[in-house]
Amino acid sequence: MNKKNCFAFIIFFVFVSAVFSQASRPDALKLYREGKYKDAVAVCEAEISNNPNNMDSYAVLCWSLVGNKQYKEAELRAIEARKINSYDIRLIEVLGEAKFYLGKNNEALDMFQRYVANSSETAARLGTAYYYMGEIYVRQTKYEHADISFSAAVKYEPIYSAHWWTRLGYAREMCGDFKNAVTAYDRALGLNSQNYDAVRGKKRCQERL
């Protein structure tokens, strides 16, 4: 084998080795989507150890921590990651989620508003951010604001969850908008006919019409 062929073989061998190495490496995002949150966290921690500036790993890490209900840890890691890149909208949104579950309503709302303001119309978690904003407004008894937020949530993800439509119905019901509340409850029941909250909500509103 001449030098040229030998060099080409080495390059090919390195390339193939890299491909196989990548293929055999656990996929943290795949683990997260499968609901294997602890496994995803472990993979992300290893990736961050090798590359402390890996924002993709930080994002999946924080999503997985929230998924595993480790909200305080998710908050701390998201804050840590934002010291590297404060403009990463994924971390802004997941920090909002962590703060929401920790009961830090105003801080969470600020994060979600920042996410919405800096996201495109096709952002992956835009509907989710609006949903959480709606829940915060319900906590604050600002039902008209909740109506607007839940309406935006189901606009971006209309078939995502019967629960979102139910919450929209509830916000409208609390505003006294019983007709449109029934419409929202009907959409929820169209997705899940066994949704007890939607059944009760619709019955209450119909009695007021």
TrEMBL record:
Annotated PROSITE patterns: TPR
Domain of life the protein comes from: Bacteria
InterPro entries, per database record: TPR-like_helical_dom_sf (IPR011990), TPR_rpt (IPR019734), Ycf3/AcsC/BcsC/TPR_MFPF (IPR051685)
Alphabetic keyword roster: Repeat, Signal, TPR repeat
TPR repeats: 127-160, 162-195
Gene3D superfamilies (UniProt xref): Tetratricopeptide repeat domain (1.25.40.10)
Signal peptide: 1-23
SMART domains in alphabetical order: TPR (SM00028)
Protein name: Tetratricopeptide TPR_1 repeat-containing protein
